[in-house]
Amino acid sequence: MLKYKIWAQSFFEDSEKKSSRAWLVLLVFTLALLILSVLGLNLTGRDSPRVAGIAREMAITSDYLIPRLNGENFLEYPSLGYWPIALSLSMSKNPPDFLAFLPIIFLGTGTVLITYLIGKKLAGERIGLMAGFILATMSSFITFHRHFRVDPSLLFLTTLSLYGFVAGYQASRKRFLFFSPSTLEWPGHSFPKE
User: Fold this and answer.
1) Is 99 a domain residue?
2) How many Cα atoms within 13 Å fall on the side-chain side of residue 154?
């Protein structure tokens, strides 16, 4: 019995180490892939210079509430999407283009890691890793994070809210940390089943 306990303890410690190594590999892989995809890119096209200009104006004026372009209110997108870019651009007086892409890279990496966590919660470690690697290597995902837009912020926050829903739905009623009004069963109330 003692040998079994020792074996079980070492088995679980090894699986935890493998889990943390796999998570770290996914993190490094995604960061490297997204960094390599934006190396040498300039702010070109229709959207990128405009979004960079709005974020830069936020950084210069320190007005993070109302997005402005050339002094005019630009209310096409909410200001939250510009905040990570504006904070990154406020680090330097004359920031290089790469500094503008840095928050988009981090948001993309965060989206992949949260996808991994959702898959791990729903179907286990291997499925979570597969989901993370599949998302990180999709050409549309990489292309999406090569353009300078506010959409990566929206994608990250939407994925984060989905993780909150999954975690909350799987938690017991006593430990319901992520309450979501969209769940079918509220704490203390059950809807009739048909």
Assistant:
1) yes
2) 8
- Assess if residue 23 is contained within a domain: no
Rounded distance, CA 168 to CA 170, Å? 5
CA 122, CA 187: separation in Å to the nearest integer? 21
35-67 tens-digit pLDDT: 999 888 777 777 778 888 888 899 888 888 889
Count of domains forming the chain: 1
Helices in 39-61 by DSSP H: which ranges? 47-61
Q: Cα 92 vs. chain centroid, distance in angstroms?
A: 24
Copy the structure tokens of residue 65: 């509430």
Distance separating alpha carbons of residues 75 and 68, to the nearest angstrom: 8
Strands (E), the chain: 68-69, 72-73
> 3-state class of 62 per DSSP?
coil
Q: Tokens 């990154």 map to which residue?
A: 88
Q: Report the distance separating Cα 136 and Cα 27, nearest Å.
A: 10
pTM: 0.76
Which domain, by its residues, includes 105?
32-175
